[in-house]
Design brief:
Length: 395
């Protein structure tokens, strides 16, 4: 028998009969995984004992105030059915500041990890996880704690990928939100008029394209001519730059009978406008209200006192959509979106920050800039932060 020191624990090189359980100090059982490269790369790559990660240290919608960068966090160990993923790409979401403000689970107190989604490489894994994954496999995942150099992910929740590409990351939350919400709540059919607010953003881009696939007439709002050009390139029929055009006037003039479906993520005055623009039997899907997230309450006021009367008058409806409530549909949706992308049927626009004042978003330190960039309304498509390779790693 030979013994070898691996990061943070001892692994035993087993006889051909298979793995041998060992105990760490304190009696914690560790499966012997050293007999196969499925479990840990023993050919020179170094999985360090410490890593960088972002941690919420104080509840606040001000991301910079709420979150701190730790440089000495322990690298977690994967359990039997888990993967240790070295993150290569992480996605920025408007709701990151809702999470840092503690709005999703009021029982959770700081410190806690932040970041919803990542793409990276498997660098270690538990025994049962090796039935479907191996070291070096590219995977994507949706799980709290992605703003870290390494994240442990349950193998059953990981999505195998052919390679590490930022386009795949755009589908995990943003693409899936558009696909499932429109499928389950939109009632899309040929000829329907669909209004997408913040249409050039991470999820708006998919709502535009999926509505066009359903042969709908699509109207998209945005804040610049550059964004308008992008929307036209993905098939948007009528682009409204709200900086140069009055959205309410355009809708009243060009769509006097109203719009059938609204994919709404802005909130506040845009929400009020969208309600007023609904057609008879129109549907408004609320997937967010970004204008309010930075407020202490998380909400921008709306004209709610007349809302029941407006809905009744038009037999219209408003429904909220929160992705966590639709995970039973998630894998099917993601598989469909991946196939569409691989066939060239779906544009997955990525904003890596190349045009931001300080340049590309690289490293966990740049997550703060990326969140600011989103709330300045500068991004076209999904904001993605790259996490560079460690110079000491051969993985």
């Amino acid at each position: 028998m030979s013994w070898r020191r691996a990061p943070r624990c001892w692994w035993r090189r087993a006889a051909p009969g298979g793995p041998v359980p060992l105990l760490l100090g304190g009696g914690r059982p560790i499966l012997d995984m050293s007999y196969s490269r499925h479990f840990l790369d023993f050919q020179g790559s170094s999985i360090p004992s410490a890593m960088k990660k972002l941690v919420v240290t104080a509840l606040s919608p001000d991301f910079r105030r709420a979150v701190a960068l730790r440089r000495d966090a322990p690298v977690p160990l994967p359990g039997d059915g888990e993967l240790l993923v070295r993150n290569r790409l992480v996605g920025i979401n408007a709701s990151d500041i809702n999470y840092s403000a503690g709005r999703y689970d009021t029982s959770v107190k700081p410190p806690f990890d932040v970041g919803f989604e990542g793409v990276g490489d498997v660098v270690a894994l538990g025994l049962s996880a090796s039935a479907h994954y191996s070291v070096g496999q590219a995977v994507a995942y949706v799980k709290a704690g992605s703003f870290a150099e390494y994240t442990v992910v349950p193998a059953k929740e990981a999505v195998p990928l052919p390679s590490v590409k930022p386009e795949f990351l755009t589908l995990m939350v943003s693409g899936a939100t558009a696909y499932i919400s429109l499928k389950e709540l939109g009632g899309l059919s040929e000829g329907k008029k669909v209004l997408v607010t913040a249409a050039a953003g991470g999820t708006g881009q998919f709502a535009v394209q999926l509505a066009k696939k359903a042969k709908c007439h699509v109207i998209g709002t945005c804040s610049s001519d550059e964004k308008g050009g992008f929307l036209k390139s993905i098939g948007c029929d009528r682009v409204i730059n709200y900086k140069t055009e009055n959205v309410e006037s355009v809708l009243r003039k060009d769509y006097p009978e109203g719009v059938d479906v609204v994919y709404e993520s802005v909130g506040g005055k845009m929400f009020d406008l969208a309600v007023n623009s609904l057609a008879t039997k129109g549907r408004l899907i609320v997937i967010g209200f970004i204008t309010g997230y930075q407020n202490p309450t998380g909400i921008e006021p709306i004209k709610a006192e007349f809302l029941p009367a407006k809905l009744l008058k038009k037999s219209a409806s408003i429904q909220g959509f929160f992705l966590n409530h639709y995970f039973s549909e998630y894998k099917m949706a993601l598989q469909h979106l991946l196939k569409m992308y691989e066939k060239g049927e779906l544009v997955c626009e990525v904003d890596l920050g190349d045009t931001s004042p300080e340049g590309k978003f690289i490293g966990l330190e740049s997550v703060f800039r990326a969140v600011d960039y989103m709330y300045m309304g500068k991004n076209i498509g999904k904001i993605v932060v790259e996490l560079p390779h460690s110079v000491n790693s051969k993985l």
